[in-house]
């Protein structure tokens, strides 16, 4: 529900659809072995009567953002370190507008995620040399791989506000992080539960991505609460999409009990509906898709029914949360508890409501919610 999710989920296919995500290109098994665990999969006593996708028809409003205590000073300097994956780039696409509204200065540094943690650390060090007031980045890799660089940035007096990852003492805030991913996983499991009792679900994942571990935890939590099972289908971001798709197809053929397949990282959904159709599995397995990207094919998959549903989560909105955190820090405000590692905004997308959503797959007019909080028109 990043990776990208680092890479973002977001729409969890729906992840994040949401969020971003969280992609890491570290060594990873790509043999398709299951890493999940079955929960209540054999029984029929857990779970209520399916409610159907109509239960997700309501649209989610923008988040409520508390008003700032004053007007942040002009001229604040911010560095954005973004990975080169589409959802990473899209996460920060609107930040230029928000920066301009605040009268701040922006420097963007892009790194190649295929270079792994070394590439991220190199980019972060470039950011430190720019001597910004604040720095944000797509934290696609485990914190341990960047901890020394992060501590160096903190020692330099830079306010640190990453997107994806896990909240750390060195951070002012962590956005689209653990709480959002766990929540996206819960929602991802609720979709098949709305269609049948005790569904068997497969999550396509790279096991060493923190965001996907959080999503799996959320799916397991929801399976335990309302019935069903979830298993992991291991792939790797270092594989070409056709290779990952064949891993998924092979897993589904050897595990015919799986009736739903979920992708929560955008690159893991590339070409998957077509691969399922070619394998004759499209009538046997329902697809719940990954991060919805503006201008992409996700909306057509939802409208046509090739994707049963998707989950839109905070993607672009996360960059505005970064600015909001920085603005509160400039004013020496304590960040409200519900804005720290927030669970974030979510929207389940189906064939029935896909056409009514904004093209950005974000909450309608979310920018205005932040501008109002900042006292900006």
Please give a structural write-up:
Helix 3 runs parallel beside helix 4 and helix 10 runs parallel beside helix 11. By secondary structure, this protein is of the alpha/beta class. The strands form three sheets. The protein has a six-stranded mixed beta sheet, with helices on both faces. Strands 4-3-5-6 form a four-stranded parallel beta sheet, sandwiched between helices. The chain has a two-stranded antiparallel sheet with strand order 1-2. The protein starts with 8 loop residues before the first strand and ends with a helix. The chain has one domain: Rossmann fold (3-Layer(aba) Sandwich). The protein contains eleven helices and twelve strands.
Topology:
Blueprint: E1 9-10, E2 18-19, E3 77-83, H1 86-92, H2 95-102, E4 105-111, H3 116-129, E5 134-137, H4 147-155, E6 159-160, H5 178-195, E7 200-205, H6 210-226, E8 229-234, H7 241-254, E9 260-263, H8 272-278, E10 286-289, H9 298-304, E11 309-313, H10 316-330, E12 346-349, H11 366-374
Parallel strand pairs: 3-4, 3-5, 5-6, 7-8, 7-9, 9-10, 10-11
Antiparallel strand pairs: 1-2, 11-12
Helix pairs in contact: 3-4, 5-6, 10-11
